[in-house]
Amino acid sequence: MSRMVKDFIEIRDCTSLDSLIEQLIAVRDSLPTDAEPQMKMRGDDFFGRQLSIAYFRPQTAEEAECDARYAGAYRQSRERELARLQDELGYCAIPADGSRKLRVVA
Question: Which structural domain, as residue segments, surrounds residue 19?
């Protein structure tokens, strides 16, 4: 699959620095080579904090099948929305040959 999907790993409940380092090394070793991982601290004092690691992975065949199933419907909905906005704004297509000239109105 050529398409990459963003996925997340969350690390919670670290009791020591050594255990956190071990978990991070295990995560790093399990990631694909072109994953482009990013780590962020998420959460707050009330619900707790966790480390969130975002990375890219290849899309699975099942995910590709699901995307293909809904791609046509999504494209049609976007085209309907574009047509609605063009009607609302009074869109007028510009001829490709450049014969349309601008007129300055004072």
Answer: 4-58
Is residue 45 one of the residues assigned to a domain? yes
Q: CB–CB of 12/65 below 8 Å?
A: no
Q: Number of structural domains, the chain?
A: 2
Q: 88's torsion region: left (phi>0), alpha (psi -120 to 50) or beta?
A: alpha
| Of the listed ranges 7-16, 27-36, 71-80, the one predicted with least confidence | 7-16
Residue 1, pLDDT above cutoff 60: no
All residues at 6 or more sequence positions from 58 whose CB lies less than 8 Å from its CB, including other chains: 1, 3, 4, 5, 32
Q: Work out the pLDDT band at 100, boundaries 50, 70, 90.
A: low
